[in-house]
Write a structure and sequence with these properties.
15 helices; alpha/beta; D-Maltodextrin-Binding Protein, domain 2; 2 domains; three-stranded antiparallel beta sheet
């Protein structure tokens, strides 16, 4: 595992004030600069977009450095692919998805979920209105574009089972990540799975929001965990304090970015100037909704609920015909800080996300 160096880690103390039910921006008392720094690579799940704002905030504001970490953030090629990279030790820590993490562990390539980033999976299928495909059950006999490592493609059997169709009734067309939306808008395929934070991009590319139908998995019975932070088990065993420091910095930054979305977007664009600020903000605001569940509201950012994890494990086992792993086999809960609460914000979201 190249580039991993042991370092002394110091916790960040975040003081969070509750005033009239609203959480103010966290106040950080920076600890002394560590004498040694651990270099780690963190792989996100996809090309950089709004869902990754907190990681760049943590980098820019020095939260990782304050925890003794020199973090290099690299792009992903699908959540399932990132889980594989973590399991094999190519990278020590990454942003993957719960489905792929459970599958990988059940199949003998274990990873450890150390935090839930999106409590609700932001998975969705998108179609053109003219196709008449307005329900996932109508995907039977159709085509969909996605790369093999796409997390929503990996989770498709769960949706197919929930709506009562054969998962093999949908034909997958292998494309690069950047070609998913183009393939749909140019009518080369009937559908594409894409995080529903991408609706603004879809609307622009496909002639307007009235031309696109978005079908979130969770609206059709797939109530499972979404994106998670996963760690290589060997790395975790060797450097548990590094993982604690990474989570502390990440969720401090997440809280800050929820409260300060515009500033967060500008910070990320310092590192990724190619990003459209309007699209990136739209993506981040929508992803915030995936954290606004009772599980997170009643606990803290990153919280892992035993029952919801069991439910996700059971769904994966039944859909993929793999053994049911134990929660302890795939989850390490004792590293997550309980300090960072979900701020009370009320940002506008698209109609398709409303009950």
């Amino acid at each position: 595992m190249k580039g991993w160096q042991i370092g002394a880690l110091t916790a960040v103390v975040a003081v969070v004030f509750f005033i009239a039910g609203v959480i103010s921006a966290p106040i950080v008392n920076p600890p002394p600069k560590p004498k040694q720094v651990l270099d780690i690579t963190f792989a996100v799940n996809w090309v950089f977009d709004g869902e990754h704002v907190p990681f760049f905030v943590a980098l820019d504001k020095g939260y990782y450095a304050q925890n003794g970490l020199n973090v290099k953030i690299v792009r992903g090629f699908g959540g399932a692919d990132t889980v594989k990279r973590v399991a094999t030790g190519e990278v020590p820590i990454g942003m993957g998805d719960a489905v792929s993490s459970i599958l990988s562990t059940a199949r003998g390539l274990p990873v450890k979920i150390v935090a839930v980033f999106f409590d609700r999976a932001p998975f969705a299928f998108h179609t053109l209105k003219e196709s008449g495909i307005d329900h996932p059950s109508k995907l039977a006999g159709k085509t969909a574009a996605a790369p093999p490592g796409d997390v929503q493609r990996a989770a498709w059997p769960l949706l197919a089972k929930a709506v009562g169709i054969d998962p093999n009734s949908l034909t997958w067309v292998n494309v690069e990540a950047a070609a998913k939306i183009v393939s749909l808008c140019e009518r080369k395929v009937d559908a594409t799975p894409f995080f529903y934070d991408a609706v603004e991009t879809l609307w622009r590319a496909c002639g307007g929001k009235d031309n696109v139908i978005t079908m979130p998995y969770w609206k059709y019975g797939v109530d499972i965990y979404g994106m998670v932070i996963v760690v290589n088990p060997d790395f975790l065993a060797k450097y548990p304090d590094a993982v604690r420091g990474f989570l502390n910095a990440t969720f401090l930054a997440t809280q800050w970015a929820i409260l300060n979305p515009d500033e967060g977007i500008e910070i990320m664009r310092k590192y990724q100037p190619q990003l459209d600020p309007t699209l990136t903000k739209s993506q981040w605001i929508i992803e915030i909704t995936t954290m606004q569940t009772d599980r997170i509201k009643n606990n803290y950012l990153g919280y892992i609920d035993e029952n919801q994890m069991l439910k996700t494990i059971k769904a994966v086992s039944e859909a993929y015909n793999v053994p049911e792993v134990k929660v302890a086999d795939v989850v390490a809960r004792d590293l997550l800080p309980t300090t960072y609460k979900l701020p009370e914000v009320n940002y506008p979201v698209p109609e398709f996300l409303k009950p």
